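Sanity check

After download, print the first record. It should look like this:
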Amino acid sequence: MTNNTLLALAALGPALIILACSSTDDGSTASSNGGGSSGIGGATGGQTAVGGTSSGGAAPAAGGASGGVAGAGITNTGGAIASGGTIGAGGVTATGGTTAFGGTSAAGGSIGSGGFTSAGGTDAGGAGGSGDSGGMAGSGGSTSAVTGPCDIYEAGNTPCVAAHSTVRALYGAYSGNLYQVRRTSDKTTKDIGVLGPGGFADSAAQDSFCSGSACTISVIYDQSPKGNHLRSAPAGGYKPSPDQEANATGLKLTISGHPVYAVYINAGMGYRNDATSGIATKDLPEGEYMVTSGKHYNGGCCFDYGNAETSNKDDGNGTMEAVYFGNSTSWGRGSGNGPWVMADLENGLFAGTNGTNDMNTPLTSDYVTAMVKGKQGHFAIKGGNAQSGMLKTMYDGARPTPGYDPMKKEGAIILGIGGDNSNSAVGTFFEGCMTAGYPSDATDDAVQANVVAAGYGQQ
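Expected structure tokens:
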């Protein structure tokens, strides 16, 4: 945007889920040990598949009943009933246990005919199905106690192609760096990682490094395999000089009791990557969300996260598709006085189609989930409280006119600014993802549940 043209899932955060994900960043690699885990509370009645391959299946429900069904999308080829399997007391497999060939669990009791095991098989991770009998496992794998939004998107066949956060890992297996800080006193830098796979930011490392000096956030690492890291935005059509880096201590918060830092954007600050990999271009479908603040915003252009021009200039209607949050009324608006989740499609902030959309209501909670997704001829806007409840659909329908169907997206990524480097907006960024493909409503709901379960603001 420019100034000058102005499954359905339960919360998965603490649940066991089978994932085989890996992510890389500048100098660190996150990996899972492969395979999956046994479900909690599995009763008799499941099957043991020998040599089966599980792909795209869902995590089993905790406390499953006898004879439950496995999640949708699970294929077991050549399965056979394992002999000699025994059921431990209550059929319970302790968290962190691994399932061996024959259905035995390494910890907390074994599952012979009460678990759903795939000896020698692989599991591609997933969400969106359910299983009440035992649990699913792939041999040679690890048990992940956490699930991230990108695991959910992966299971929905709309994988993350960008995943940014300074507060937590967005994959359950991610153990790399989240961001980098720059000490202003001597210009040295330090990468800030997570406290274990799928964990929260190691803010103590930042505190130690920045003690006695101011620090800025110099890089926000992409946790996806695409390497779409964000650095301070270069000059653009609106502001012909680079943007400033955000103060690394601008906002400290707690998330599930862990102290972490947000990306606290004031006017003149912003981040960008014009040479991306995997980001949607032209009229290809995509989804994007961010967790932001319903307290720190303004009407300036434009507090965006998402898809923008690679030229850093206004390249015309439909050359952007970013999620915006604020109370700008220059192009469109929702009901009341804002702030609203809107779509920045270039040369317009859209609360729905053209003009005012009274169904797009203000979101003023401390933490807000803001979401935009688009496909050929269609886009949707959703938002909600990142601490509780479901998403609300603010708009779901045809694209605006004229010039937005088909779209002409260029595939850069921006944070805190507009497509032509308009940088008069303020806002706070905690986490955000972009996907390849148009996520389903069930996937959207599962991501929201995961965000809520993360525990924003919890001491």
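If your output differs, re-run the checksum step. Summary of this record's structure: The longest strand covers residues 427-435.
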